[in-house]
């Protein structure tokens, strides 16, 4: 969030912060300290540029700033018309609820096994991909398909990315519309930060 604040500061200040490390931090803090705190933009920048990370605004807090009050917070919509027709995307491999299969005690015990299976299927090799996907699945209380959690995690940790549009044709069980919805749920549950903290 700090970097976002620096970029916004540079755009509205009309200059790049070109100093190196400590000098740049000092320059940003000087500019931050000169701002007022009553108008929406300075208020946003002061929150994003707080020197103590715990005091910084989260993405959702930043979006609550009055500066963004005219932005729509409605559900995201798919741009490509073929994608929005979920009937044409084939059967869903995650079931109607989107979660992992439940064991006798009602727990999603098969999620990790499913994630490992999909790691092999997609030839993913980075253990952080598996860790992040498991975190996403756990944070969403199993509401999100394990395969979708893994595909999303791969965008951060794998060197080769999957072309989901092409993949949808190769794998008729991959529901792209459901994936988009699951991705939104993960983003919200992770507070828009996809890097697991533990």
Overview of this structure, please?
- This protein is mainly alpha-helical and 198 residues long.
- It contains ten helices and no strands.
- It has helices at residues 2-13, 21-34, 40-48, 59-63, 81-84, 111-121, 127-139, 146-157, 164-170, 176-189.
- The longest helix is centred in the N-terminal third of the chain and has 14 residues, at 21-34.
- The radius of gyration is 21 Å and the shape is elongated.
Descriptors:
about 200 residues; mainly alpha; 10 helices
Quick structural overview:
The protein contains ten helices and no strands.
Instruction: Assign an overall shape.
Output: elongated
Biggest sheet, open or closed, and with what strands and sense? none
Low-confidence stretches: 76-93, 95-108
Mean pLDDT: 74
Number of helices: 10
Name the structural class.
mainly alpha
Separation of termini? Answer: 19 Å
Helical proportion, percent range: 40-55%
Provide the succession of SSEs.
HHHHHHHHHH
Strand fraction equals under 5%
Rg value:
21 Å
Strand count:
0
Provide the fold topology.
Layout: H1 2-13, H2 21-34, H3 40-48, H4 59-63, H5 81-84, H6 111-121, H7 127-139, H8 146-157, H9 164-170, H10 176-189
């Amino acid at each position: 969030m700090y970097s976002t604040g620096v970029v916004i500061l540079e755009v509205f200040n009309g200059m790049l912060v070109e100093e190196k490390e400590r000098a740049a931090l000092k320059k940003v803090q000087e500019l931050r300290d000169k701002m007022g705190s009553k108008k929406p933009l300075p208020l946003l920048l002061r929150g994003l540029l707080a020197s103590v990370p715990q005091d910084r605004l989260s993405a959702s807090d930043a979006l609550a700033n009055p500066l963004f009050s005219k932005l729509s917070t409605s559900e995201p919509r798919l741009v490509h018309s073929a994608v929005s027709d979920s009937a044409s995307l084939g059967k869903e491999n995650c079931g109607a609820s989107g979660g992992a299969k439940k064991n006798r005690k009602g727990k999603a015990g098969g999620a990790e096994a499913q994630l490992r299976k999909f790691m092999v299927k997609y030839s993913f090799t980075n253990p952080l991909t598996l860790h992040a996907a498991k975190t996403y699945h756990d944070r969403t209380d199993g509401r999100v398909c394990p395969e979708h959690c893994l595909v999303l995690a791969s965008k951060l940790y794998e060197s080769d990315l999957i072309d989901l549009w092409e993949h949808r044709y190769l794998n008729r069980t991959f529901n792209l519309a459901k994936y988009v919805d699951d991705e939104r749920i993960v983003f919200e549950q992770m507070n828009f930060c996809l890097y697991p903290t533990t």
